[in-house]
Amino acid sequence: MSQLKRDFDAKFRNEAYRCRFRLPLNERLDGEIGCHLWTLYNRSSIAGKLYISSNFICFSSKVYRQVNLIIPFRDIIIVEKHTNNSNISDFDIQSALVITIKYEGGPFVLSNFTDRSFILGKLSSLLSEYNEKIISIIDLPPITISPPLYLQFNNNFTEEQQAYENIRIAAWHTHFAIYGRGSAMYRTNELYELLFQGIPNSLRNELWLLFSGAIYDKEVNLNIYRKYVYESSNVKNDHDTINEEIERDLYRALPDQEAYQQESGINALRRLLRVYACYNTDVGYCQAMNILGGVLLLYMNEEDAFWTLAALCERLLPDYYNTKVVGALIDQGVFSDYCKEYIPELYDKLEHLGIAACISLSWFLTLFVCVMPFESVLYVIDIFFYD
C-alpha cells in the first residue's frame, strides 16, 4: 500500500470518527478495537467498538444507534481491571475494564477485549500523559452575558402549550435519571425517539451545546469569548466592511420574532456576529449566519450560542459559510439528483421554470428556518445537532 493511500485512509478514519461523535477538528484517532459495553440501564452486554483518541474514549454499538458513549479524558478518574467479586454473569469479567469518572454517571464496564492488558496499559499511559491544552485568558474585565432571549420574549405559552411543555420536561428528566446526563450519557435509540418529541425550551441551551459538540471547544477555551468581545469592539478598518454587512442583515434575521423587534435582541445578535467575525477571520461573516445566530440566541446564552455557531460553521456544515458556499452547493447538487430520481415531474417543472437551483440553496444555508413554520424548524435543529 502506498504512503499516499495510507494517509488518505487515516484522514478518512479521523474525519468519520470526529463526525460520528461530534468531536473537535484537532482530534486524532489513535486506534479502535472490538469489545462489549455493559449497560446499567437494561443490564445488557452490547457488542461494538471502542475508539481511543488524544482526548476522548468513545464507544459505538455494532447495531446502529443502539448505544453510543463519549467519555472525555478530563472526566476520567481511573481505568482499572474489573474485580472478580461481581454478581454480574452476563459478561466476561476476566477481560473487563472499569472506567470511573468524576461526575454522576458510570462506572462504565467494557469487556471481551482480546488483550485486556494491552488496552489497560494504553489507556493508563494516555491518562498519565494527558495534558489537555486549555487556553485561558486572564486580566480581562468582566462582561455581561445575555441569557436566552426566549426568557424575556416569546414565552407566552397558552395553558395547553405549557401543559405539553411540562410533559416534555418530565419525559426528559426521566430519561436523564435512567441514561445519565452530560457528556458521558448513554446515547440510545430511546434518546433519538425522544428528540422527535422535541427538546423543551429550558433544556435547549444545555443539549444543543452538548449534541453539537460545541461544549468540548468551550471547555478548552476559557474566556476566549470575552477576549473577542473586547477585540471586536476595538477593531476598525479591516472589519468595517464586515460590520456594515452585519448591520444590513440584523433586522432581516427573524423579523417575526418579538426578540428581534427590540433593541436588546438586536444588540445581542450584533455582538454575536461581530465577535465571530473577529474570532474566525477566514469566515468572517456570510449571509444566513444572521438567521442561524438569531435562532441560537433565542434558546442559548450568548457565549454558548457563539461556540455553537462556531461548530456549525467550522465542523457541522463545512464550507457552507464563505464567499463560494461550496459545501452548500454540493449538498444542493445531491438534493437535485434525488429530486430528479424520486419526484421527476416536479423536478422537470422547476427545471423548466429555471428555478430548481435557486429555491433550495437558502434551505440548506438557513437549516430550513426561512421555509418552515418556526416550531417545526426547532424539531429539525434538535435532530440535526444530534444526528
UniProtKB/TrEMBL annotation:
Record's keyword annotation contains Methyltransferase: no
Q: Which residues cross the membrane?
A: 363-386
Which residue intervals define the domain Rab-GAP TBC in the entry?
Answer: 198-387
**What UniProt keywords apply to this chain's record, in alphabetical order?**
Membrane, Transmembrane, Transmembrane helix
Q: Which InterPro entries would you find in this protein's record?
A: GRAM, PH-like_dom_sf, Rab-GAP-TBC_dom, Rab-GAP_TBC_sf, Rab_GAP_TBC_domain
Q: Which domain of life is it from?
A: Eukaryota
Q: Which organism is it from?
A: Rotaria sordida
Give the molecular function GO annotations: GTPase activator activity; small GTPase binding
- Report the protein name in the record: Rab-GAP TBC domain-containing protein
